[in-house]
Design goal:
The chain is of the alpha/beta class. It has 12 helices and 15 strands. Strands 2-8-7-6-5-3-4 form a 7-stranded mixed sheet, with helices on both faces. It has a 4-stranded antiparallel sheet with strand order 9-10-15-12. Strand 3, helix 4 and strand 4 form a beta-alpha-beta unit. The structure holds pyridoxal-5'-phosphate (PLP). The site of pyridoxal-5'-phosphate (PLP) has 14 residues, from helix 3.
Amino acid sequence: MSIYLDYNATTPMRPEVLDAMKPYFDSHFGNAGSVHSRGREAKRALEEARETIASALGVREKEAVVFVSGGTEGDNLAIKGVAWAARERGRHIVTSAVEHRAVIGACRALEQQGFEVTYLPIDAEGLIDPETVERSLRADTTLISLMHANNETGVIFPIAEIGQLTRERGIVFHTDAVQTFGRLPVNVETHGADLLTLSGHKIYGPKGIGALYVRPGTRIVPQIHGGEQEQGARAGTENVAAAIGMACAVKIALESMPTEHYRLRTLRDRLETGILGRITGTRRNGDQDRRLPNTSNISFHGVREDSLMAALDLEGVEVSAGAACASGAPESSYVLQAMGRRPEIDGGGIRFSLGAATTEAEIERVIDLLPGVVERVRTATLQGAGVRVRA
Ligand SMILES: Cc1ncc(COP(=O)(O)O)c(C=O)c1O
């Protein structure tokens, strides 16, 4: 059996989630926009799902939750939606250099359309300084988009402080909480977020569904045009089954968070100490404390991340390395580069992300296995270099 340690990439759907969804593919297949009984039944279920997600985020008005197709669409709708809605007031957006590609990509697209974007740096531990954020603000800044926690390192940003800053200045604040929901408390009031993105498949829900919280009164321009679904913010027949699946996953994530947080942190720390203690030339990437409980990112000197990932895969251990670009070819991580890591010197970063099915036995197995695998990859890398030198 393989050992899956890539829960930040995606999670398996819980059986309860599938059970909750099934009727909506079958007997309850109605279109939530239809006015007959079957349609109204679908609409009722959709609105219940919306309410569950709203209340999980500390939101009273369920209409503030907009169902979208996932984290990527949620981020795009938040950023492009606010940028265009506020364009008469200003065209400057602030974000960080280590956001998920969904955010960076949306910002780059806006730059092509005459908006200006500041990509803030982070420090060697992956943290952002609220003062740096404050200094970047201008009279024409309309939006700040900063993630709650980084998907590669797990480092947590001080978003409540940033939320406070934006409130004082009347700037809209978006946070991508795709990696934090179910792992840390997420509450739009505590964080001062005007917009917040969630994704279903990161919390043991289905793929292809997400939610964007939009604070009532925050203007966004829809990015998909058509019908008046989702309070006019997102056209298209709603994916009722997926929304119900996501709401079910949200409920379970909240219930299991207190115990899972501690359990995963203990396992993660055991894994990290085991690796750093047993393998020379290793280095943790990301602040020790201000980090997601399930995530560990480690650089291995003299090893390319894609080679180590492939070698581990052959041993039945599934982890993630850097960021895979659209072609599938590995690229060294822009997140680690922003932390000042040099892949040629520090080695590539491997992300171990633990989740619901991770056991102590699996962690011990990885600790036992990894030194030999790293040794083999290091030797092969040196030999490879030697062959090239002789040729
Ligand atoms: C921080 C973050 N934001 C956004 C996304 C995109 O979410 P989705 O896969 O639902 O489009 C991801 C997924 O990796 C993520 O980790």
